[in-house]
Amino acid sequence: MVKQRSVATKKVKRRASDLKNSRSEKNSRLSPEQTGVSVERRDSRVSLSSTKFTVVGIGASAGGLEAIEAFFQQMDPQSGMAFVLVQHLDPTHKSILSELVGRFSRMPVQEVTQSVQVEPNHVYVIPPNRDLAILNNRLQLLDPTGPRHLRLSIDYFFRSLAQEARDSAVGIVLSGTGTDGTLGIRAIKGEGGLVLVQDPATAAYDGMPRSAIATGLADAILQPAEMARQLLAYARNATFPHTASLGLQPEGKDDRERLFVLLRSQTGYDFSLYKEATISRRIQRRMTINGIDSEADFVKLLQQSPAEVDALWKEFLIRVTQFFRDSEVFNVLGSEIIPSLLKSKSPETEIRIWVPACSTGEEAYSIAMLIYEAQEQLGEKRDIQIFATDIDQAALDIARAGIYPESIVSDVSKERLARFFSKNKNSYVVGKELRRLLVFSSHDVIKDPPFSRMDLVSCRNLLIYMRNELQSRVLGLFHYALNETGFLVLGGSETTSAAQELYAEYNRKLHLYQQKPKSVIGHQRLPYPGFFYSTGLGGVVKGAKSRTHIPTLREITENALLEIYAPTCVVVDDSGNMLYVHGQTGRYLEATTGEANLNITRLARRELSIHLSAALREASASKAEVCYRSLRLDDHGQTLSVDLRVRPLSGSAAQKSGFLVLFEEADLRIESTERTDLPTTDSALVERTNMLEQELASTREVLQTANEELQTSNEELSSTVEELQSTNEELLTSQEELRSVNEELLTVNAELEGKLDQLAEANADKENLLASTDVGTIFLDLEKRIKWFSPSICKIVYLIEGDIGRPIAHISHRLENLDFAGLVEQVLETLTPIAREVRDDEGNWYDLRINLYRTAVHAVAGTVVTLSDISELKRSRESAMFRDLLESSPDAAVIVNDSGKVFTINKQAEKLFGWSSKELIGRPVEVLLPADSRREHRQHREMFMQTPRIRTMAAGNGLSCVDKNGREFLGQISLSPITTETGVLIYAAIRDISAQQEAESMLRRINVIYQCKGYLEHPEREDADDGSKLLERLCKKLVREAGYAQCWISLNSAKGIPIHTIVADAGFPIGSRSALDSKVVKLLSSNKVKVIRDVYAVTGNEALQPLAQACKSRSLASFPLRKGKRITGVLGVHARESTAFQEMEVDSLRALSKRLACCLTE
Fold it and tell me: Helix (H) and strand (E) counts for the chain?
């Protein structure tokens, strides 16, 4: 922070602090000028703004972000302007608006977090839950006091900007709901600033733009992109500092006079006596908007464009008003002046108030509220008549309607809103009881006759635009309109110095004045319309003299005599319209309700109206003077006797005739030829009076009956209306709160949409990153429910898209002995990550990690589960451990993990089984076994792994093996369990013992064969006499003891003819005996020994293959039973292995067959 600050800055801080304390004590919001953040008065102050550049206030709400983007994309970053963005924001959330605006603005963007100096080519953004004001070219932050749904941050800043930057201020209203900004642009327009409004057709929400347009103050209605271009053109043509306020003269007097003539001819109003500074500033602004440098060129434009004339006229009509503007003034009015007026008059006396230049009526309604409240405090009810006038018909239409934007909540207290207004959507409507007190009328204080008998005149901020000469005469007119001791209220920059002899100061600080009694200041003549004839105000009255006319001595003498001796009189035409007034007519004429009217019968007081109408008709008919004597008038509680005279006036041929109406008080009567035949009590008048009274009585009876019926109906409806009104008020309050919250949500939503785009992009990057890696990932919330998972995890954990939101405990997986939910719960409870190596059902290893998921503020929001495949790493690491051991082994070695998968093999194993290590690693070890024994082996393996132990390579440990090509062989195996960090591995040493086994089997079979031969040669064998029994015994012995698969014997007939009949057999499976039919026996029967070692390997044996399949044998051999040349039968033997029937074995079987043939012959 800067250590030294200027005195001005310290004052700003001190005032802001005082403001903050004072605002907290108030229930309603205060405008900037009420808070004192800006300079209090306009013309009496020297502008504190040191800016020589345009300050642009931008107000937006719901849907405004899109418009803001379009605006700044077209704005030149070197425009020389400063931009202050006031957006409705959610007060409970941090705003990212400055970040979003910075993305599409080419100027520096900053959120206002403390007092900051405004610099050109910068964008300043309001923070959430703060109000923004500008003072001494520095932005100030203030705490809001109103409820959330009643905060009008745009109006607040616009008003502050108007008072600070004056005519270099620019207000822009963009998309949004409600009416915020409407009151603010009035303040900017009143100071001569520029107002731009977004075209409602292009706004996402058109409430704020339409409300701003309805004021009629928008200089242009454009799309946001067009606003930027229009603003750049405006800035290029604008001249600073404020040339008008410096009192510079226009380029040419003739051009200015021509401009006034054009305005007067089209609008009927003359602005030639307004202050040069005010007029020049407004003209310069219109020239800047139209891109015109010369006033002569601007006059040409006015001649060609009636629309521009109308726009300039509206520029002169300054609609700067608000409810209870300058609260101190209204406090004094409500607490002192108005109660004193009520107390000083009898309850039957009407209170009359005039509010000239009322604009859209806020000030007039404010006074009406004060009077209503004062009457309630005093407990009385009297007639109140408030005349509110202006020359701006559009403003009067707004005032008559009594419909104001909801942003008036910043000016009107909650109590008054509830008491005097009704809520209607986005507006407040003045109640009927308040509206009936006011009459709005088009009236020009310069050229129209004044109202009379006024107790209070409130004309604020009109005289400051007039020259001293015009101020003096308008003040004289107000003096004429006021009752004695009546009050005059002027604006903060206005005084009665131009006519100080007419008024006494009541409150100098607040510019409140009281009429001096006429007895003190002497007789005053009505300043209308005679003085206008002599001043020549732009030809307001036809035939006016030149303003340079110097009266002659005769004219001065005549005027003096008229003032002293001539009675009050009025010249009227034959229709009763007033043409000339002499003397003080306030006792006899008064302004009436409605549009201003110069007809004397409408202006005459009630006591004179009937007589005046009758006198005009009689004078017109008789062409003679008519006089009514001793007419009684009430003059402030005193009875006044007046003679009324009407005298015809004859004009020239070119001029119509008229009448001179004279009002003579009893002590000032001028004797003349009087009408003595028309006394006030003549019979005609009495008869007419009686007739009128009868008609009036009849009418009163009818009205009384109708009134009673209406009162009865009204009483019945009142109760219902009150209940509905109460319910409606509650609903409207809720609607306001919801609408305010909705606006904030829309703004936040617009901000979040931009943030979501960034998040979507980041999320896509994250998903692509995770999807491109082999790391499986699962995100879980605090309830252990799945939030997101990567595709690679699905091959380990059974997940589909529909599982999002499901608990992890409901999901199955392929990992062994792993409780996912339990581990996640452990991490959440201990807040400590877990890392371990796990294995799936196929023996693949994974690095499992479960970490905490933390938010941006480091709060735990769940867990992250990752699985990385480390199988290759594990294998490489463990393979390195056993490589030397394996390669040094003379036997084939296979290492198997505890899931039965081949972990690694050595070179000898590759040679034995025909598999390479890459092909075999990871496969089940059962691929090295015959298909029919794999299931049984798997069961034995699982039982072994329960209690692994060393099993040596001993006899009897042979196991049928199969190589890659399907060759079976017998292997002798030793098993050794090895414990590692990843589990138990089984080391299997395998030695091919097929040759050894085959030799042993052959020797065993030869031994059994010779045992059988010896048995046949034994003379005392048991079955020597039973051939069938002998053959059965022989077959069974060869199968059971020699190990052949099957054995059978067929015999020929007694004559040696083959009959191919099986007489004995053994070893045939159930149901396979039928495969050995006579055709097969015949095929195998031969005179020679027939040996087939592999029935499937040699072609031509297809007929024997069904027998081999049925008997599960692979090699076949048949031996003829021959004795000499005689063949008695055939001995058939089947073996399972293809290595059977070697030469020695065949020789032994041949010897056995010969011995059997001998036995059968014997």
Answer: 35, 40
Which residues have C-beta within 8 Å of that of residue 1012, sequence separation ≥ 6? 1034, 1037, 1038, 1152
CATH of the domain at 1094: 3.30.450.40
Inter-residue long-range contacts of 292-295, CB under 8 Å, 24+ positions, other chains counted:
293/237, 294/251, 295/250, 295/251, 295/252, 295/255, 295/256, 295/259
Give the span between the Cα atoms of 122 and 80, in whole angstroms.
Answer: 9
Query: pLDDT-derived band of residue 551, with 50, 70 and 90 as boundaries?
Result: low
- Of 865, 896, 927, the residue that ends a domain is 865
In terms of Cα–Cα distance, which of 1121, 1000, 1135 is closest to 1058?
1121
How many domains, in total, are found in the chain?
7
Integer Cα distance of 986 and 902 in angstroms: 10
CB count, 10 Å around CB of 1037?
18
pTM, full prediction: 0.42
Residue 477 and residue 423 share a domain: yes
Q: What is the 3-state secondary structure (H, E, C) of 877-895?
A: HHHHHHHHHHHCCCCEEEE
Check if the beta carbon of residue 899 is closer than 8 Å to that of residue 843: yes
Model confidence at 538: pLDDT above 50: no
Tell me how far apart the alpha carbons of residues 195 and 211 are, in angstroms, rounded to a whole number: 13
pLDDT at 823 over 70: yes
Q: Where does the pLDDT of residue 849 fall: very low under 50, low under 70, confident under 90, or very high at 90 and above?
A: very high
| Cβ–Cβ < 8 Å for 289, 301 | no
Q: Which amino acid is at 1158?
A: C
Of 142-151, 536-545, 657-666, give the lowest mean pLDDT range. Answer: 536-545
Q: Which residue segment(s) compose the domain that 912 sits in?
A: 872-992
Q: Where do we find the tokens 């009430």?
A: 634
Average pLDDT score over the chain: 79
**pLDDT band for position 121 (cuts 50, 70, 90):** very high
Pair 926, 815 in one domain? no
